[in-house]
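User: I'm curious whether this sequence folds into something compact or stays loose and floppy. Could you predict its structure so I can see for myself?
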Amino acid sequence: MDRAVILLSGGLDSSTTLGIAAKEHESLCALTFRYGQKHEKEIKSARKLASHYDVDEHKILDISLDKIGKSSLLKSGKAIPEKNEDIGKNIPSTYVPARNIILLSYALCYAESIGANAIYIGANARDYSGYPDCRPDFFKAFEDMAEKGTKKGVEGSTIQIKYPLIDMTKGEIVKKASELDVPLQLTWSCYKGKEKACGICDSCKLRLKGFKEAELEDPVEYVDED
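Assistant: Here's the prediction. I'll summarize afterward.
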């Protein structure tokens, strides 16, 4: 069976990637992580998205990076910055050390175990926060490592790492999601887990930029819209 694994955070990028993967594969399995982030709202969104797409299996794993890592996204971290005027020009405090390396490693274990031939991740290197593990050279290196370090790889059947949004602007991502009828009302991008999105964290700013460029209305409610 043609099967793929998708890393599903519950945000705009991962949900759009899920929509793309659903068109390209007959069977999808999703992985979501409770890694010590400050809220559960994105995990709730991931559950709703997995249900909407009727994925074959949706696993939510606890890995508690907050016990060893330092990041303002983690429970043990400092407050999340609200006014960053240089998004993408430096590595912000919301960077979680080695997060994509760790999440992809779990996905690789899962993919090889269930016979999947691809792993999808909603990474973007155009309109992004500047994280080093969201760049094409990183994913190419990880795929090379997977080929050399797995049974499937050494037997000549590589598990592909797919990152279809990597060169898109946020506006292009929103348009793609709209074309695919991705239920963006179910997604959550805000770094804060309150009833409404804050509209001022890096993730909210990038998301709002995308909807503005796409000339579409964001179905998620924001605090500053009151």
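Summary: The mean pLDDT is 91. Strands lie at 3-7, 27-34, 57-62, 118-120, 160-162.
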